[in-house]
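Extended Data, record 2-amino-3-carboxymuconate-6-semialdehyde decarboxylase
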Amino acid sequence: MDKTLRIDFHTHVISEEFLNLAEKYNDERWPILEKTCDCGANIMIKGKKFREITDQAWDTETRLKDMEEEGIHIQVLSPIPVTFSYWSDPEKGLELAKFQNDFIASIVQKHPTKFIGLATVPLQDTKLAIQEMDRAINELGLKGIQIGSNVNGKNLDDEALDEFFRAAHEMDVPLFVHPWETLGRERMPRHNFMYMVGMPSETALAAGSIIMSGMLDKYPNLKICFAHGGGSLPYLLPRMDKGWNVWPQIRKTEHPPSHYAKLLYYDSLVYDENNLQFMIDRFGADQIIAGSDYPFLLREAPSGKVVDTLTTLSTEEKQKIHGLNALRFLGLDIENYQPLEKVPHEEGRG
């Protein structure tokens, strides 16, 4: 019987009673939720459909059923990135962040053995962001913060954000970076390229900004995980190392980029055995965390499917990627999160 603890680190959730700030503040830039039926809804922005979602995004019982069927013991819940709304007035952004954090905390409170929660913060104002981070972690009991890959066009190494990263370092709060407002999105209206090309490129830019900035020398205990396998970062690292070597005037770090890339974490959502092996070769198995992007269409089902089919991994390495690395990243004790006796979903298992 397989007793591997299986945690899906990358999942998204939204309240069925999502705040309608577009109506409250007479500003249609706010994302709103329009139900289409009991089992579906559209996220709307500026009167246009941004994306379709199903009740898996808000119905906890549906989510628990899916987890049971797919052999997932625990999901880590985070908001849908479009709701970051960093463009907004900071106090209004804080209002939405508090609503979402309270909602996620309520799910965790009802099902403490099945869910772990990540919070969101109004990163357009670092003082408010730190204030809400403190509340989310120390009052609500959430275990980390999900942030966007840029803040109104500012890369994550922008000096205006340094105060937030310093606070996360001092408070030992892990950060999960998810792409949003993607690089070059004005060139990607067709083919759904925002999801297929824009997000991986955006993620690489976010990770590269942190790697090249010297932040990881300055804050050596800062824990950061990047979605979607770090996007295109693994492939770009040799080019970044080359640039670091030939342009000494740009250097802000003691070591080349590839050194710092191994200090970061990445989810396993790359769909392909060769890509996952490439990530492991670049970063090491200890830095990879299984995540699916549940409940969206581009998700891996079940979470960690490619991890199980990769024959080069030992049982110990698979156990790390499936769950132990997530617990270590989040600073949680394995003794409090034991796997169930149920045999996991067999489809795609190696």
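Summary. DSSP finds twelve helices and eleven strands in the chain.
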